[in-house]
């Protein structure tokens, strides 16, 4: 095992704002794992929209300086002393989800870390963990999608959107996907959508009703938020589920719940972290996701591996709707 250095590359913010607040440092102290923690040398770090919410201040950072980033793939290089390590040991290839991922090393509570199956190629863990688990828990627990169900997925060429299309296809749903360009719609089709709509200029509601024989869809998976919320409600069938799981276009405005009575609609604002808060939930969903990836040969779509020093460009691309699939960071560069 290579020795662990004293300092490392990493990105911190000391205040909220645009991407100019992201500071790439080369001399951050390497964290020490406490009891029940493991120190992971990160090989690939996932970029997620949530990172931009903490950077901008839409979600409050607990304190400053703050290290963004919620997930990574790497190798355990050290373990804390006492505490349950869930069988993890030095040298294990792992993925993890917690906080403080934008760096070469992160000390992570062992309960937030799982081993990667040997057959999973490099990058696949980091490119599938947070967004793949989001998609899996959404279609299982937010609305349990059944074979033959008609569902609507917005921003379907994005990281989470493509995972939704892939997993919905594997359960046999009819997925209507939206995106803003023909190239993105093509990717949504490749990922498994059965019908696509360009929501930048087509009449989404009319097309959804036409495809579903006037009924509407039984569930809408809406990570776009503010700009699509009303549209999503209008596309739902009677007794449908409105799953509003993100704010890519801004936070949804407050609204009167009496609007749900028009079609007996269920409304949920789920976050992944509340579906997998217990260790057994995190472990079993991760195992199921990796098993599906291996069995169904589900390759994650990787937009680009950015050097960590160019994280500002990565976040600008993500917020500027220039990306498709997953954005990763190489923390060594
Ligand atoms: P994506 O890769 O999906 O990127 C966001 C996409 O949203 C864009 O590519 C764009 O696609 C679409 N979009 C529509 N309007 C806007 C806008 N005004 N500004 C920017 N993008 C817009 O990102 P992620 O997969 O990381 O996240 C997607 C959503 O899912 C986010 O809202 C995120 O917060 C949420 N999420 C929620 C989780 C949870 O636990 N609740 C977990 C993971 C993600 P197009 O050009 O086709 O419109």
From TrEMBL:
Domain Enoyl reductase (ER), residue spans: 17-329
Lineage top rank: taxon: Eukaryota
Keyword set, alphabetical order: NADP, Oxidoreductase
Keyword Zinc-finger annotated: no
GO function terms (MF aspect): mRNA 3'-UTR AU-rich region binding; NADPH binding; quinone reductase (NADPH) activity
CDD domains reported in the protein's UniProt record: QOR2
Origin organism lineage: Eukaryota, Fungi, Dikarya, Ascomycota, Pezizomycotina
GO cellular component terms, semicolon-separated: cytosol
SUPFAM superfamilies referenced in this protein's UniProt entry, alphabetically: GroES-like (SSF50129), NAD(P)-binding Rossmann-fold domains (SSF51735)
InterPro entries: ADH-like_C, ADH-like_N, ER, GroES-like_sf, NAD(P)-bd_dom_sf, QOR-like
Protein name: Probable quinone oxidoreductase
Pfam family, any one: ADH_N
Keyword Cell cycle: no
